[in-house]
Every structure is written in C-alpha cells, then in structure tokens.
Amino acid sequence: MQIASWIAAAVALRLGLLMLLPSPLLSYIQDPQRYELVTPLTSHRRLLEGLHLMEQGASPYSGDLVHHAPLVLSLVQSVSKQLKVGPVAQVSAAITATATSMAPETQHVRWAVILLTLVSDVLAGLALAGVARYSVRWLDGSRLKNNQNKPEASAATSSLFAVTEKDADDAAQTTLLVWLFNPFSILCFLAHSTASWDAFLIASALYFAVKQHSALAALFCVLAGYSSLYPIALVAPLALAIASHPPVLQLHSAPSSALAAVNSVQAPSDVSTWRVVVFGFWVVAWTLVVALASYLYIDSWDFVDAVFGFIIQVPDLTPNIGLMWYFFTEIFMHFRPFFAWVFQLHVFIYVFPLSVQFRQVLS
C-alpha cells in the first residue's frame, strides 16, 4: 500500500510539473539543444517526424532525422491512435489546452510519449526495487552459508548481522524512491526523452535474470539492445546470473529466527552450461523475431543503418556536452571510420573479462 502511494505521488509530481511549470521554463527544458536530457536517439521531436513521414507514405528513415527503431514507432503510433477515441481523447485534449501549446495534429502522439514514459518510469522503478530486494536475500544467504565453514564466526555474530524481511523491504522501497524522485529522471520526463524506455527494458532484463527467467530476460535484453545497441553487452553477465545458483535465504521477521534458516540455504553450484545454452537460444530467437517484425513493419532494412549505423559511425557532429564531436572534426577523413568504430565499440572488449572476473559475485 505504501509503494502504491509513492508511485501515485511520483506520477502526480510529474504531471503537475508538466502542467504548472511556466511555458518559458518548460520550453527551455524541452529544447532539442538540451543534450544533457535529449540525444538524437531519444528525441521525441525526431520521433514525431518519423511518424509524420509514415503517415505521408514515406519511409521514416529516408532522411537523417529519425533514429528510433521501427517497433518503437509502431508502439507510439498504436498508443496515439487509442488516445484519439473515447473519453481518453477528451481528457488529453482538455489537459493539452490548459498545459501546453501542442498542435492538434501532434497532441495525441505527444501524450502517447508522455503516457509511455510514465509507465516506463514506474515499471523500471518496480523492477529495480525487485532486484534490490532479491539482492539483499542473495547476499545474506551467501554470507550465512560461508559463516558455517568459519569457526570464528559465532552464532551470536551471525544473528546480530542477519538481514530480516523488513531490511529487504526497506532496500526495495529506498531503491524505488531514489528512482521515482530522481531529479534527472523527472527532467527527462519533462523533456519527453525516450531514455526512460531504455531504462525500463534494461531494468526488466536485470529483474528477470535474477529471477532465473531465461526467456523474459533475453527478450528485454534484446529489446534494449534493439533500441540503443549497447545493452547487448549485458548478454554475458545476464547469462552468468541465470546460469549460477546462488544461495537465497528465506528471510524472517526477526534476526533471532534468521539462523534457523541457514541450514535451508542451498550451497551454490557451478555455472550450468545448459542454462547458458538456453539463454543463448532465447537471445538468438528473440533477435530474429524482432528483426523480422521490424522488416515487415516498414518493408525495408533501412532501420539497421539509421539506428545502429548512426550509433557506430557518429555522422552527427553537432557540438554537445562531450568531446568526441570535436575529436572527429579534427582527424583526417581517411582515418575516421577506424576511430569511429574504436571509440564506439571498444566498450564491448571489456564485457568478457569483467564477466569472468566478477562471476564469483553470483556465487
């Protein structure tokens, strides 16, 4: 009940700021030049442009403005159509008339983005809260099990530092509050940035990985990578998380009763090769499904270069808060492809060694 209250407060805060902030301030936050909040990959203005091109019968990727994946365009289009009919349309029109100066032809699309961002923020917070709660049980189960093999770890000491159900609930609630009331996430919502959608997909992948749901973890990991490429780097650590069997303590209401559950904690086993294979199968399967669905939606593979090629090749050298754009304006064009690929893809080099190095965290 308390969690529901916090969620309602977070939603009310976001909508209240959206409707009550002075127009100049709101316009400043929603300025496409606010690179702290919006990038070409998360800009709702580019999303609107893509949907407009589709309505005109043109490919959304015919120019160099749209870099959202086809299924993202499809989702926003479907939600915006639902907002055009029934009482929902009347409510959104009334709010739009009093809150912003949205054009009639784009107000439904904008409110679709707002609605999806709200839902993504809430679901991402709940997923992270679930991960936090499970992690407390996970780590405490490992600690108590390890103390069984240490003579110096007395029962009194283990009982004193035992984690209770209330501790796990507090960790989950704190995580949820930090996410929902984070000023940056609120500003991203006000800027209509779609970054919250990516955060929801990543958080969901983590949640289902710690819950040992291979198919769902793979689905959200693939969708996150499909939207912004780099979450594909999570495939290896998620596979290890799913394949490992860490001890999870069944928490109790009081520390004194926690030691009674130590014997029920199962010792961690080695990484299951079969689980890795199953997770890999689901990653490949979902990748094929998503790619095929995208092709069927726009009848073209143009989105591959528009979404992933844009990330890797860095064709947009508009000045931003980083230094990479300046670096690429100074190098010779002959060397540009090499440095672009090195700059953009070097992060994947660290995935395997880091996953191997920190695999013990899972056990």
Q: Can you walk me through this structure?
A:
With 363 residues, the protein is mainly alpha-helical. The protein has one domain (2-299). It is 66% helix and 0% strand. The chain has helices spanning 2-20, 23-29, 44-55, 70-82, 86-99, 104-147, 155-160, 165-180, 183-190, 195-210, 214-228, 235-243, 273-298, 302-313, 324-330, 336-345, 351-357. The longest helix has 44 residues, at 104-147. It starts with a helix and ends in a 6-residue tail after the last helix. It is found in: Endoplasmic reticulum membrane. The chain crosses the membrane at residues 111-136, 216-243, 276-297, 338-358. Pathway: Glycolipid biosynthesis; glycosylphosphatidylinositol-anchor biosynthesis.
Any descriptors?
363 residues, mainly alpha, 66% helix, globular, signal, GPI-anchor biosynthesis, endoplasmic reticulum, PIG-U
Q: Tally the helices: what do you get?
A: 17
- Total domains, how many? 1
Helix content: 55-70%
In the predicted model, the low-confidence regions spanning at least 5 consecutive residues are 154-158, 252-269
Over all CA atoms, what is the radius of gyration?
23 Å
| Major β-sheet annotation | none
Task: Report the structural category.
Answer: mainly alpha
Q: Give the SSE order as H and E letters.
A: HHHHHHHHHHHHHHHHH
Number of strands: 0
End-to-end separation: 34 Å
> Taking all residues together, what is the mean pLDDT?
81
What general form does the structure show?
A: globular
Q: Give the strand content.
A: under 5%
